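Continuing from yesterday's entry. The apo prediction looked reasonable, so today I'm repeating it with flavin-adenine dinucleotide included to see how the binding region is handled. Same sequence as before; SMILES copied from the compound registry.
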Amino acid sequence: MDKSPHEWMTPTFVPILQVRPESSDTFSIELESEHFPSPGQFNMLYVFGVGEVPISVSRAKASRYIHTIRSVGAVTQALRKLKTGDLVGVRGPFGRGWPIEKAKGRDLLILAGGIGLAPLRPILDEAARNIEQFKNVTLLYGARKPSDCLFKEDWENWERAGINILATVDATETNWNRSVGVVTKLIPKVKFDPANAISFVCGPEIMMLFCVEALNNQGMEEHNIYLSMERNMKCAVGYCGHCQFGVDFICKQGPVFPYPALKSRLKVREI
Amino acid sequence: MIKTIQQEVKDHPFFKEMPADVTDLIAGCGKNLRFNAGEHIAKQGTPADQFYLVREGTIAIKLHVPGRGAVFIQTAEPGEIVGWSWLFPPYQWMFDVDAQTDVALIALDGLCLRNKCDADPKLGYDLMKRFSQVLAERIGHTRLQLLDVYG
Ligand SMILES: Cc1cc2nc3c(=O)[nH]c(=O)nc-3n(C[C@H](O)[C@H](O)[C@H](O)COP(=O)(O)OP(=O)(O)OC[C@H]3O[C@@H](n4cnc5c(N)ncnc54)[C@H](O)[C@@H]3O)c2cc1C
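Holo prediction written out below.
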């Protein structure tokens, strides 16, 4: 960190350049930025008089980035009401992201559930830009229903670049030509070399646990599985302890962890 | 190379590690079927006298919900099986089965199999264990779906 803790605690107010609906409860905002976050990092977004929340970067471009937000409570609902030109307080980028370098030259399995696709989109963008640096890249995506699937307009580009996409929904009453059922069911369909593969997983914790089990069953070793964790956060710089998860602070040592680092704690109900 | 029904049954993951003479016996109750995308394969509430091994394509399993129509709850793909209603009274399909894409299936005659199981309890027990495993897996998946984890 090149700034002092005090500086990291002070938000910079930036105007929203664009707002875009993604689904019935999810939207994206584009902000100007002098930082270039690495895939998997997050910012603290502050709405005047309401509060501050950690939100991953869902796409980074030169001098701007996109956050994709699901409105679930006080702050995210307030963010949803903002319009182009309104100011948002931003602190960050924070945290350790996905170890993309470790994925190069290997089969990469990206598993996402619901809004969990947001922090993985920068990885998919990177893989699509430099597909020759990876072996097979596969996205396995699960959502509640077809209209909840995020970033559908990107899927074509990713597929054209050579990324294999398998998507599934829990149920549907509309036309849908992909799978229906749980996301773990997709894992045995992917051909990968367990000795030379890596997996990045982000979604609800229970989904991630079932995914780890299913990946294990296909021969993927635990140290090659990375999960992105969510916990309530306040300072985001490792002081307040709000996001403490056993010996780690999610904001600083995470949010992305290799599964073995979490394994014993994920099974402790109290944390 | 076109595979015989015996070979298809033997190679299907559901019958993994079953001795060839037993899979041959089971294949004796089987026939090849093909459906075009969109065609109905079985209808909820009608007699369930067979189950299917999926060879090619994707099958859609739908529940008919009054007032809502067909709710698509699951897909089944090559290597999977569809249907267990033939095992238990009242032997009626509990869901609609449609072809989501063009599909190739092996249909196994439930009555023929039930008779073979009654005559050979060892075969019956082996088949029950295999079906129970599929059912347990589906219950696990259904529980996850019920949790509505993305909701
Ligand atoms: C590192 C990190 C990255 C994150 N990235 C993103 C992101 O890219 N996009 C995004 O939308 N969210 C992301 N989140 C989650 C987001 O921070 C929370 O949804 C947010 O803090 C909720 O704040 P709120 O004030 O709107 O809701 P609160 O008022 O705090 O909560 C309101 C209700 O929503 C429920 N709730 C809170 N959080 C969640 C959640 N994550 N999922 C479902 N229900 C929840 C609460 O249990 C409560 O019932 C991330 C979290 C972390 C830790």
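Comparison notes:
- The CA atoms of residues 201 and 267 of chain A lie 17 Å apart.
- Chain A has two domains: 5-94, 100-270.
Will overlay with the apo model tomorrow.
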